[in-house]
Structures are given as structure tokens and as C-alpha cells.
Amino acid sequence: MGIESSTTKSAAPGLREAKKRETRQAISDHATRLFVERGFERTTIAEIADAARVAKKTVTNYYPRKEDLALDHQDAFVASLARHVADREPGESALAALRRAFLAAVAAQDPIAGFAGPAFTRMIAESPALTACLRGLHDQREEALAAALAEATGAAPDAIAPRTAAALIGGVHRVLFRRIQDLTLAGRDNAEIAALLEPEAVQAFALLEPALADYARA
Predict the structure, then answer these.
(1) What average pLDDT does the structure give for the chain?
(2) Confidence at 1, pLDDT banded by 50, 70, 90
């Protein structure tokens, strides 16, 4: 009896965490469905709570802002470029690592790279609030990249070189992200977009080679 009670107690936190994850995912799934069907601005938190069968307060506990419900992978998006710099291979420059990672994301048709499908992409494009939020996420991602480049090169956090390099690299990522959105809205499927984007991405990153080919080499 004592062993059984101890096992139950140790399992309880895991069960609670699993339940929280399930609730969070259910809220996100219902929110996305409603946003796509009705539009972001026309959907209320109360309607999302009703669809997910939870209290309105539960929704806001998991997602403090309405935009967080629509862009629920934003933490991964903001951290992505900095993470690729930190994970670059021995002898690999930051630019080479980021180009390699982006081409892999294109091949995988990764939603974080922009392969979100027509319904979701249209939802963002038609919402001024989400469009503004996405611009802010690009800014945050660039800031995180600048910090990672400063650390990789031993520069001061506010030094001009890592900030400039981050702006250049971040600019290429913004252009390519927008390109994926535009092609999606034009009716191209993900496989077509990936085929078109691979050579375009290679060309875009090549434009940075003269300035950044050896920058932040591991």
C-alpha cells in the first residue's frame, strides 16, 4: 500500500502537466479554427472558451494576448536564428549555418519558415493586428540574432557589427518569409513553393557573402 501511494504521488505532477498541455493545445486548435472561419478580429475570447469548453479566464491564463492564440509558435520563431548560430558546426560561419538551416526548413516545408498553408496565411494577411504582430516577431528575432552574434564574436551587446550583421541576415529571412506567404496566397502548394524558393534562397544568401562569408566563424 505504501509503495502504491508513493507511485501515485510521483505520477500526479506528470499527469497534471499532461492535462495542462492537452488543455493548452485544445484551446489553440479551437482558436485557430475559429480565426480561419470567422477572421481574427471577429472572433472573441469568449467564443474560443465556449468552443474549447473552458472558462474565459482559462484561455487568458494560457494565452495572455489574443495574438498569442493565433501565433502560438512565436517563441520558437523568435529563437530560431540565434539557435542556429549557437549550433553551427566547427569552422562554419554564422551565414553558412543560417543558410544551411533555412534550406533544410524549405525542404521540410517547416511552418516556422512560413509554410503555414493557404487558410492560415490568408488569416494573417487579412488581419492588421496579426500582420503588425508578425512584424514585431521579426524584430524580436533579429534582436535575438544580434545578441547571439555578439556572443559568438566576443563583441559588446550593443556593438555595431553584430547588430548590422543581424539586420542584413534578418532582412533576407524577412524577404524569403514574405515570398512564401505571397506564393501561398497566389495558390501555389507547399511542394511548388519549396521548389521555387530553394534557388531563390541560395541567390539571396549569396548576396551577403562578400560582407559576411567569414563572420562569426566557429
Answers:
(1) 93
(2) very low
